[in-house]
Every structure is written in structure tokens, then in C-alpha cells.
Amino acid sequence: MLSKQKVVTLGLQHVLAMYAGAVVVPLIIGGALNLTPAQIAYLIAADLFTCGIATLLQVIGTRYTGIRLPVVLGCTFTAVGPIIAIASTSNLATAYGAIIVSGIFVVLAAPLFGKLLKFFPTVVQGSVVTIIGLSLIPVAMNNVAGGQGSADFGQPRNLLLALGTLIVILLINRFTTGFIRAISVLIGLVAGTVVGYMMGMVHFGTVSEASWFSVVEPFYFGVPEFSIVAIITMILVNIISMAESTGVYFALGKTTNTEVSKQDVVKGLRGEGVAIVLGGIFNAFPYTAFSQNVGLVQLSGIKSRDVMIGAGGILIVLGLLPKLAALTTVIPNPVLGGAMVAMFGMVVASGINILSQVDLRQNENLLIAACSIAVGLGSAAVPSMFDQLPTMMKMLLQNGIVTGSLTAVVLNLVLVHWNKNLQQAMTENKTTVSEAS
């Protein structure tokens, strides 16, 4: 049983691991829509607050909702483009109306999605988890270089700071045990930030400008409005998120030695649907399971749900205390990147571990793993190849997790299921002919 102090410390480590991903979405959307600094500050506060509520709903769970695994929920990057497009052509109220309806769709569609689990055998699960990790590596490397679009992108000091952070994490994992090893990422982030401060890379301007207290209020940007096109767009976004989350659930199941059943997936997706509805009500965003925290669970070895409950509570507090939330934004991008290399690499290793349980000497399994990983990584690395396609198709195919997962499922159907059915039919036919003669 972990003490309260350890739960808070380990929970903070998970918050810091996902914080950049949680904050960058409101910053991108707010900047693209020319929102005022006060409105962007509200978006960040609402996002953190709702992340916390969504995480608690998922981890604690009820009879009908919540995966009850150590998972953290955050806003999905898939929704960034569509939200900007909807709000630009109409308004934010229409975007949030679409988010609310799409969340209801996820709640209702969860049982149907659960029935598809028979198409996710071990070879598909391992391929999907590997794809999730590989598709995140470019995110880590962009941060290592200083953050995509930054003026000092790729400067040696950024690379050295990221390398130093990674080395600290590796040394702690090699030479320590117990609680210290479990918080190796947190120690690496703190050490990297201190070094970054000495290098002049840490700035506290956003902290001084942030207010001390803020209350998240429903429908901050107005009463929701509804558009069929906007609703269909957001439903498509959340179907993509459902596919991603299913892969994350499988990864968590393997990491925590928990058998993830059809009903578990259904309850997890229902929980995400409820979280998405809350995101629409509080003018935040659609939510999904964050892959980086799966890597952290694997790296730290701490699989307790209490830690995620602690993380959810910290996120709620950060949503209510903008100045405290702003303090976590001073961590330099290269420091985050160094930590991400270890965490995302653990997700890849987890996928490879799952695939090690598959007989890859069978040509069918080898083809499923090889082609799905190649397609998924290719889509994530070169998304521009789909630029000439219609918007809806482009949105689907530019997501490497979706294309890789679909490839794995389809190949499993064609090479395994249909082949077995064909062989069974041929065997039955031979038996019938033999009996007749």
C-alpha cells in the first residue's frame, strides 16, 4: 500500500508526463482562432480541470463506465484541426455542440465497438501497441530538438539537455530501487529543468501573469449550437480515438498483467464518451487515453490505480489554480523530449514483448505484423501523402495508429479467419464426398 506522499509524488510524475500534450492543444486552438489571452487561459484551466474529472471517472469507474486501469485521459490531437475548422466557419458554440453529441455517440456505440474485439488477437494487439509507440517517437524527437517551429530548433544545447535528462533517468533506473526508481522520470524532469534554468532556457513570465484562482464554468463560450456537418466530423474524430484507446487498453492490460475483456473495453469507451460530453459542457475538448502514461507505468513499475487517482486530483487542482498550472509549463521542451524518449520507447518495447508471444514463424502472423507496422509508421511519418484526398479520408489516413490498426485487422481477417473458414469448408466437403462414396 502506497503512502499518501508517494501517491501524490507518483501522481505528479504522471501529470508532468502528459502536461505538455494537455496544454499544447488549447494553445494551438486558441492561437488559431485569435482568442484573447484571458480566453486561452480559460481553455487551459478548463482542459486541466476536465482532464482530472475524466481520469477519475475512468480509473475509479462505476458499474457501467470506466476501464478501472491505471490510465490518464487527455485531449486528443486528432480533434485540433476539426475544432479549428468548425469554429472558423461558424463559431466555438457549434464546435462544442458537436463535441457533446459525439460524446453521446461514443457512449451508445461502445457496445458495438466491443463486439469487434474478436478481430484483435495477440498478433493484432502487439502490432497496434508497437505502432502506438513508434508513432509517438517523432513527437519526442521534435521536443528533443527544442519543439517544432521553435527558433532554436536543433541547436546543440537542446540536444545536450535532452541527452542529459535521458541519462539521469537511465542512471536512476540502473543504480536505484524502490520509490526512487519509480520517480526516475520526475527526478529527470526536475534535474533537466534546473540545468535548463542555468542555461537561460527557463522563463517565469507566464507564471507571474497567471491568476491565482479560476472557476471552470459550463458553456463559457455560449449555449451550444448544432450543425449536422460539424457533428459528423466530430463523430469521425472520436471513432479514431476509440480505435486508439482500444490499443491503449490492451497495452495497459499487458503491462499490468490484467486480462482486458470485451466488457472492460466497453466500459472504458463509455467512460471516454462521458468525458467527451463533459469536455463539451465545460468548453474543453474530446478526451482519450494518453499513451505516454502507459510507457511511464511500464518504466516506473508502479501499477496502482491510486497513483492515477492522485494524478486526477492534481489535474483538478491545477485547473482551479492557474498560477500553479503555469509553473509546470516552465519545463524546457528538450527536457520533456529526453523523458519522452524513454517513455515512448517503453511503449514500443511493450508491443514487441506482446509480439514475442506470437509464432512469427507462421507466414500469416509475420505478414500481419510487418505490413501493419510499416503502414502505420509510414502514415505517421509522411502524412502529406494523403493531402490530395477528401478531408474525411485524409483525417482518417493521416493517423498512423488508425491505418496500422485497420491493416492489422484486415490482414488478420484475410490471412487467418477466412483461410481457416476455407480450410474448414474444404475439409467438410472432403468428408461429405468420402461418406457419399
From TrEMBL:
Output the PROSITE patterns linked to this UniProt entry: XANTH_URACIL_PERMASE (PS01116)
List the InterPro entries.
Answer: NCS2 (IPR006043), UacT-like (IPR017588), Xan_ur_permease (IPR006042)
This protein's UniProt keywords: Cell membrane, Membrane, Transmembrane, Transmembrane helix, Transport
GO MF, one term, reads: xanthine transmembrane transporter activity
An annotated GO cellular component of this protein is: plasma membrane
Q: What is its main location?
A: membrane
Topology relative to the membrane, per the entry?
Multi-pass membrane protein
Q: Where in the cell is it found?
A: Cell membrane
Pfam families, per the entry: Xan_ur_permease
Q: Which PANTHER family match?
A: PURINE PERMEASE C1399.01C-RELATED (PTHR42810), URIC ACID TRANSPORTER UACT (PTHR42810:SF4)
Sequence similarity: Belongs to the nucleobase:cation symporter-2 (NCS2) (TC 2.A.40) family.
Record-given protein name:
Purine permease
- What organism does the UniProt record list as the source? Brevibacillus invocatus
